[in-house]
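In keeping with the milestone schedule agreed at the kick-off meeting, the structural modelling team has produced records for the first pair of proteins. Each record is given below as a sequence line and a structure-token line. The laboratory manager (R.T.) confirmed that both were archived under the project's standard naming scheme.
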Amino acid sequence: MRMTCFQYTGRNRRGEAVNGKIEAATADAVAGQLFNNGITPIDIRPAAAAQDVFSGLKSLAKRLRAGRVAIDDLVFFCRQMYTLLKAGVPIMQSLRGLRDSTQNPALAEVIGSIAESLDAGMDLATAVRRHPAVFSNLFASMVQVGETTGNLAEAFQQLAAYLEREKDTRERIKQALRYPSIVVFAITVALFIINIFVIPAFARVYAGFHAQLPLPTRILIATSHFMVHYWGLMVAAMVAVTVAVRYYLRTADGRYRWHRAKLKLPVVGRIIYCATLGRFARSLAVTLKAGVPLVQGMSVVSRAVDNEFVGERIAQMRDGVERGESVTRCATATAMFPPLVLQMISVGEESGALEELLGEVAGYYEREVDYDLRNLNTAIEPILITIIGVIVLILALGVFLPMWDLARAAQGH
């Protein structure tokens, strides 16, 4: 069989982007080699086609038109797959039907690719893992367990329920942060307008009196002067800092430090913390319910919690369980869980109902997140009011102190 040179892009076990070239008979053979080497392929194409600029532009335009696969699309996909498989429709027919009926071109393309992989002899879990940008490790592991146990329909049902809870939590967090974000944006715009247009007008008035200005006024005028004359430099510095921070956060060390810092943020840090631990408990409960072994489930969940710091603690728990220690003891060693949650885990482990108790733990954290989200605006409002008050005080002192001094000087004269 004639060998072809393929160019691939993918991610290794640490999530880092990798690329290169492999000679093989087919693209599926390349995917198999990459999986054996611990690399999850994202894109595989003949090297000649990859070097074709016109083909690359066409592919880029196609992806831009297609958009992305949102969590709503995944919920729709899981619900429909559950219904079709439960009704006895063959999986290939189900995939082709969903590909033709979905309204999202990106999802239709992914479903079509999965169907082609199944036609080539792949199992569904491997075909799903070829699209890590769409399907998480948890998703692929659940599909694999469903295939192995013959309960694929139930696996899709559990995934749909999990994704719906995830979607609801994200929407509530976004809704709670919308008001503070608008206020902060409005303050930023107001400060920009004041520094560019208002303060220079007052500075020209004060300059005509040739008087010694108070310190707050001099600071405001100096700040305004810098913004007016060096705004280009400020924008360039902001862009450079943004690019540098984004680059750093893409590194393993940067992600770890940022994810740890997020849990310690004032007000919102507790919400992120509870939401992350709730995601951990819910994900582990779902994997155990699907029949995934505990150690394997922890490995999957450690990559699915979307927080490197918490993921590392879960991996430590997994290592302890592998050594024969109890889940409760390993959870206590991480110092992540309060006594009530540790007691619930202990009861579940001793009674053999760890899956049900983890569901209760997830419900506990979800209720905590719901309570904190309802009170988020109440907690943030005093902080915002204090910040606005300080800004108004500085502006008032800087603008009106010279007026008062001039008025007193005029009265004395």
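The second protein of the pair:
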Amino acid sequence: MKAKSTRLTRKTLSGVWCALILPWTDRDRLDARRFAREIRGYGGTGVSGVYTGGTTGEFYAQDDATFEQVTEIACAEAHALGLPIQIGASALSTRTTRMRIRTAIRAGADALQLALPFWLELKDDEVKRYVREVAEEAGKTPIILYLTMRSKRKISPAMLGEIARDVPTFIGTKDTGATPDDIKTILKEVPDLAIFGGEDFFTKIPAGGRGGYCSITGFNAPKVVELYRLCAEGRLDEAKRLADLFHRFLHEGLLPMVKEDGLWDSAVDRVQRVAGGGVVGLRCQSPYRSGTEAHVKRLLAWTRKNAPELLPAGVR
């Protein structure tokens, strides 16, 4: 049964939202038991909610049956914890997106997180048409636009303002590439839009950001929540040291796996989650390469040496 939670609106959407990673079997099928266990692992951590899809959740590797299974398990387990859940329903066409939206709503999704169709770069009128049509399908269920350059284009602040005025259920954005100045510019067009970055709360919350969709939360959710709360409460002097540690963790501990070892984000996110005690495993869907136990050990060694405060309880 769905636990009662705050309805997500432009005013209430905030905080730390954790990306859910899918555990695969050796035949690239969803391991449903491990997935349920993984979601339960975020109970009591202080996160504001969880979400599926995106790069971390390998939405691009899911057929319709897998998407439905993921969505049903994620909604049921999140609500059992009293956590709201956003379902990533991105796809290559409006038609497929609409089908996934219907699945998500049946399962009880609290919101939908959508990237633009990305095989061909959408023109301005196509962006507006896409958002209008998916919002029509979603009805009262709110929409968060995932603004990623993997969709091959940016949406200007002026267009975001136009969309927000035309589509009241468009409540927020996920844009890890937005600068503090970008946030301020967007908020001039849509003052109440909930704009999210990643774990960079220290710079983006003072500019008007509301929180983060953070894959890094998988390593140590309570510590990321601590950083968010310090920044949200305006205690930036206290937050700076922790913000600097997470910045180093990202740039010195994780990014070398991308730049030197050629791992994609989904593989790196698995490495940090396994290092943090998650049960998702390291296997990514083929043809994308996976991280290894050596990567996990390397990340833990770096953290023990350079940022032991970030180590999760029980991993020290």
